[in-house]
UniProtKB/TrEMBL annotation:
It comes from Sciurus vulgaris. This is Sulfotransferase. Keywords: Disulfide bond, Glycoprotein, Golgi apparatus, Membrane, Signal-anchor, Transferase, Transmembrane, Transmembrane helix. The lineage of its organism: Eukaryota, Metazoa, Chordata, Craniata, Vertebrata. Disulfide bonds join 288-300. GO terms for cellular component: Golgi membrane. It comes from the Eukaryota.
């Protein structure tokens, strides 16, 4: 994959740093004016992303064809749920992070459950659109019947400083799901997405480090998001750990039924979504949903999911692994889970 600045093409990219090797090699840098222009354009585009318009709320999931288990009565056949039945509620559960961790996959898997109604798009209420008010936020939610759970997912909530307080103000009982992934591969995946939208970006190495393989640049969002322990610290004054479920992005790929089973348990739902719903797509390298009754074909996530990553030099990967290791270990201690990234 050819990008401006190169990804592993120069001799400096093939060298690490170590005792007695002298100062690290200086990586080729794009002219400062060009770097500033490209990054400025990318940041401006990010800032211009608007809230969903008030007159056109994001489309909710399609209406279910049967009542949720809590609404069924013995001896009474299941009746179709008409579009617009039920009422709009604030979400009882949120997928709050992290970007490029597997949040879209988890949401789509959970939407198979008859007792889950989830907003399909990301409303970004607690980070970008809070001034529109809670009534506006509730108006976006799909209608639910008694016994169904309302959900939405916006991965940027986890890294937004104001989000925990705002969500707690809505409901201190909100259940919070965080999908995490090896922060190094997550950062590379994040960069691959940026590169697909802005092909002129400098190389991954040029953005991740200052002065070649010098200090890691934590000001870059792709690096900063992976500091999971620091972000979690921001949530704990508002929510106890018992309100969180931390889902492994790696296991969501290798064992989707197992991870989705844990989520169903956490939400207090019967394990309806099981291994019979999944198959592994070798081309995408990702699990897909088997063909549903009445459907013409199996359903996989969009083309942007499972996209190939750019080749990043081993020295760059190793430096980032070393950088994240103490943060990862603190995160393991905080959550009581070893995600095996070290």
């Amino acid at each position: 994959m050819a990008v401006s600045g190169g990804l592993g093409g120069g001799a400096g990219d093939r060298q690490g740093t170590g005792p007695g090797q002298g100062p690290p090699p200086r990586a080729p840098r794009a002219p400062l004016a060009l770097v500033a222009l490209v990054l400025g354009t990318y940041c401006l585009c990010a800032l211009l992303r608007h809230c969903p318009p008030t007159s056109r709320a994001p489309a909710p999931a399609p209406a279910r064809t049967e009542l949720p288990r809590a609404a069924r009565r013995p001896g009474v056949p299941g009746l179709p749920v008409a579009s617009g039945s039920g009422r709009r509620r604030f979400p009882q559960a949120l997928i709050v992070g992290v970007k490029k961790g597997g949040t879209r996959a988890l949401l789509e898997f959970l939407r198979l459950h008859p007792d889950v109604r989830a907003l399909g798009s990301e409303p970004h209420f607690f980070d970008r659109c809070y001034e529109r008010g809670l009534a506006w936020y509730r108006s976006l939610m799909p209608r639910t019947l008694d016994g169904q759970i309302t959900m939405e997912k916006t991965p940027s909530y986890f890294v937004t400083r104001e989000a925990p307080r705002r969500i707690h103000s809505m409901s201190p009982d909100t259940k919070l799901i965080v999908v995490v992934r090896n922060p190094v591969t997550r950062a590379i995946s994040d960069y691959a997405q940026m590169l697909s939208k802005t092909p002129g970006l400098p190389s991954f190495r040029a953005l991740a480090f200052r002065h070649g393989l010098g200090p890691v640049d934590t000001a870059w969002s792709a690096v900063r998001i992976g500091l999971y322990a620091q972000h979690l610290d921001n949530w704990l004054p508002y929510f106890p750990l018992s309100h969180f479920l931390f889902v492994s992005g790696e296991r969501l790929v290798s064992d989707p039924a197992g991870e989705v089973g844990r989520v169903q348990d956490f939400l207090g739902l019967k394990r309806v979504v099981t291994d019979k719903h999944f198959y592994f797509n070798a081309t995408k390298g990702f699990p897909c949903l088997k063909k549903a009754p009445g459907s013409s074909r199996p359903r996989c996530l969009g083309k942007s999911k499972g996209r190939p990553h750019p080749v990043v030099p081993p020295a760059v990967v190793q430096r980032l692994q070393d950088f994240y290791r103490p943060f990862n270990r603190k995160f393991y201690q905080m959550t009581g889970q070893d995600f095996g990234w070290d």
